[in-house]
Amino acid sequence: MNGLEAARKRGRVGGRPPVVDDDKRAAILARRERGESIRTIATGVKVSIGVVHKTLTDAKTKDT
């Protein structure tokens, strides 16, 4: 068993914690629904443009 497997068995998960929580996700989706640009949303929610793109793409994938 390697280190990552042992950590998972103990309930530990590696990697960086997600930047977008449920509140930020809802804000991003609502602002995009109102027609705001991705750049404006990113500035308002204080996340990167890439995070906004990923959140919108993930939401679109889940809806389909």
Quick overview of this protein structure:
Residues 27-61 form the Helix-turn-helix domain. With 64 residues, the protein is an all-alpha fold.
Which labels suit this protein?
64 residues; mainly alpha
CA radius of gyration is 16 Å
Query: What percent strand?
Result: under 5%
Count of domains: 1
The low-confidence runs, each spanning 5 or more residues with pLDDT under 50, are none
Series of secondary-structure elements, N-terminal to C-terminal: HHHH
Report on the biggest sheet: none
Mean pLDDT: 91
Structural class: mainly alpha
- Overall 3D geometry? elongated
Distance between the termini: 38 Å
- Give the proportion of residues in helices: 55-70%
**How many DSSP helices?**
4
What is the strand tally? Answer: 0
InterPro entries: HTH_58_Actinobacteria-type (IPR045745)
Domain Helix-turn-helix: 27-61
Pfam families: HTH_58
Protein name: Helix-turn-helix domain-containing protein
Task: Give a description of the structure.
The protein has four helices and no strands. The protein has one domain. The protein is an all-alpha fold and 64 residues long. InterPro entries: HTH_58_Actinobacteria-type.
